[in-house]
Amino acid sequence: MSVVPAAAAGVLALLEARGETLAVAESLTGGLVAAELTAVPGSSKTFRGSVTAYATGLKQDILGVDGTLLAARGAVDPDVAAQMAAGVRTRLGAGWGIATTGVAGPEPQDGQPVGTVFVAVAGPDGTRKVSALRLNGDRAEIRRESVRSVLELLATELVGERLGELSEYERAQDTEQNGGT
Questions:
Q1: What is the pTM for the complete model shown?
Q2: Where are the domains of the chain?
Q3: CB-CB contact of 129 with 155 (8 Å)
Q4: Per-residue pLDDT tens listing for the chain (181 residues)
């Protein structure tokens, strides 16, 4: 099993345990984050939905990203990522919002080289975190790593742990629930 499905299952389990919900705003990942989350059985308990705002104008029109910011810096920007996460959280009525924006290639965009990615989390207490990534690899690898990174950023905000520790948390929960060792 790859780390992404484990990460998706882990964050959904944490959200469910906390009684909280999640919404996703995606650009370069084109729905991959939502696909990973909804591949987990029972995800509907915490996953509210997603917006794939691939076109820059949709980031403003649907997610509420500041048009002046988009005009000045383009869609590949940390503040855009933060506003996407906050916007999807608000618009879909979720406790948490996560977002991805960046350049998967094959060409640079908005003056940013291929592999420039920003992932963001917006939480119920006003939390806003953004991670800037400089990824290598082909288009598929950049998109897959972006998915993993945004889920890890959310996991970090939820429990302050890295995904490796989250996997141990999942195993401990499974052992407790099933009475095994």
A1: 0.86
A2: 3-166
A3: no
A4: 355 778 999 999 999 999 999 999 999 999 999 999 999 999 999 999 999 999 999 999 999 999 999 999 999 999 999 999 999 999 999 999 999 999 999 999 989 999 999 999 999 988 899 999 999 999 999 999 999 999 999 999 998 643 444 444 444 444 344 444 4
Q: Is 132 helix (H, G, I), strand (E, B) or coil?
A: strand
Joined tokens for residue 68: 């002046």
- Tell me the pairing of strands 47-52 and 22-26: parallel
Out of 3.90.950.20, 3.40.50.720, 1.10.443.10, 3.40.50.300, which CATH number does the structure's domain 3-166 have? 3.90.950.20
Cα–Cα distance for residue pair 102/29, rounded to 1 Å: 9
Residue 35 CA to chain centroid, in angstroms? 11
